[in-house]
Amino acid sequence: MTRWWSRLRPDNFTLALLGTVLLATLLPMTGTAARGLDRFTDLAIAALFFLHGARLPREAVIAGLLHWRLHLLILACTFVLFPLLGLAFKPLDGRVLTPELYLGVLFLCALPSTVQSSIAFTSMAGGNVPAAVCAASLSSILGVFLTPLLMGVLAGAQGGMADPLHAVGAIMLQLLVPFVAGHLLRPWLARWVERQRALLRHTDQGTVLLVVYGAFGESVSEGLWHDTPLGSLLAVALVSAVLLAIAMPGITWLARRLGFGREDEIPIVFCGSKKSLATGVPIAKVLFAGGSLGAIVLPVMVYHQLQLVVCAMVARRYARKP
């Protein structure tokens, strides 16, 4: 019984993650406090990538950039596999799901991968961080253009990003610039960073908790629990869970079937199965202006929270394996 419970008992970080979700539900930040938290989170993310850049040797960065098979597989999972899974839920349209909610499921499946938490989970699990940085950033950049095009194919919707160059610039400024800066300063910082490996681990976990609290708190402040009927919320949660339950094992099997090693399998699983709420909301405001934006974005919000909890457990499981 003790051995069985030790396998099922959540680890400390997973408990902290669930506690953060509960805190964001009960005490979400709004107004000036929320904007301050966003700025602080941006600084924490920048610090995370700066430290990763300072720790990683030049050979690892070049290998991450040139790992084209890994990037191609992640993009195929994000922009091909997920849209096909979204179409598989078509029989639920108008029955379990309202037309607006099903449109939201299709929108979820067309979104790019999230960047910050994908890389943080990859680092926590001991995966190929340079490849994750490149793959997740590339997915977000391409998603600015591919998501509206995919929605036009999947749902007949028309629209696009109002200023895609601004979105690309924001990604570069927040993630790649600190990473490059840290890497350029590696000759002076390498020894200190090697002595502070525990600091990197806590920075990874703290960044994930900040992203969870900010994203979930914003959703609650916008009326996630108040404006959504319980039956609809349960249906969306079930569809999101089924989607994640199909995607993560399927992507894991595919990565192993194609001969990727453990370090490469980890970023493939995390970058290929995650969807970005931060990128999705601005795109939704353009694509669905004047429509039922709340219902359309709801599947993205639910899937976003679910993927963080599940990926945290998967990352800890990877980390425990030799």
UniProtKB/TrEMBL annotation:
Gene3D superfamilies tied to this protein: 1.20.1530.20
A GO CC annotation given for this chain:
plasma membrane
- List where the protein spans the membrane: 70-89, 101-121, 133-155, 167-185, 231-255, 276-296
One Pfam family it belongs to: SBF_like
Keywords noted in UniProt: Membrane, Transmembrane, Transmembrane helix
Q: Does the keyword Methyltransferase apply?
A: no
Give the protein name, as stated in the record: Bile acid:sodium symporter
**What species does this protein belong to?**
Stenotrophomonas daejeonensis
